[in-house]
Amino acid sequence: MAATGCDCRFKDPLGARLSPEQYQELFKPSEYLKFIEAGFSSQNAFPRHTLQCYHEFFKSVPNGVKVLDFGTGPVMLSTISAATKASEIVLADYSEANLAYLRQWLQNDPQAYDWSPYFRYVVQELEGVGDREMDEREKQVRQLVKDVVHCDITQDPPIDKGYDQLYDVVVCSLVLEGASDSREEYRANAARLAKLVKPGGALFCYGIENKNGYYVFGNQRLPNIHLCHECWLGAFSNAGFCDPKIRIAPTCDPNRQYRFISCTRKTV
Ligand SMILES: C[S@@+](CC[C@H](N)C(=O)[O-])C[C@H]1O[C@@H](n2cnc3c(N)ncnc32)[C@H](O)[C@@H]1O
Q: Mean pLDDT over all residues of the chain?
């Protein structure tokens, strides 16, 4: 049900959610990495804001957890803080091109994207520890990532066979608004994510409240539905999550703001 005063918008100017083929065509990992690099030069924008949210979130997570990053993209952002608590990490994405970027970095390929400035930011600036820990953290992440697999939040199950199991922690950043065409689909997708979280386990979900109906990086424009605050929050309680912790931050565009929720899957 829509909330009173709801201003959700689904008819974006670009048409519906993209098929895997369209996604592969439009979402170029190299362009996305340039977009991330540009944002990194600004203190409060994405991806520093996401890194700060991951850092805060993982401080509250117990040691030895099994972590799934659902919709990782070509980026290693979540793993830097996840490695402080994880016993193993699984990375999953919709696009083969993104998975190839992740594998390249994990295999220590000299052509791989250099994530060291992001590791330095988290380990030195946010955690306040030194150079040696930073090198160690990169090694630790390479050891902890057990697999890089395909996922599609609109399918049942939403992840490759063998990975459709319960994780202590699931993180999902900037995925659901682009992968859903309506409020109902967003709710169904949040419910599919919930099925991957152990009862008592935690979900970290980062998104953008976006009245534009699309997002832009480089010269790409991709669809992105807009859910009002109540409908967005309602999707997580409807999916069986409780104890929501929310963080909202402005972007330079008044139509868009970052929003982050962490919540616990109910045990009964
Ligand atoms: C904007 S990127 C976000 C990447 C990364 N999580 C981050 O925070 O930078 C959106 C990601 O959603 C993934 N995605 C798009 N449709 C999806 C779907 N139906 N199921 C799962 N992931 C999807 C894409 O492959 C892409 O990596």
A: 92
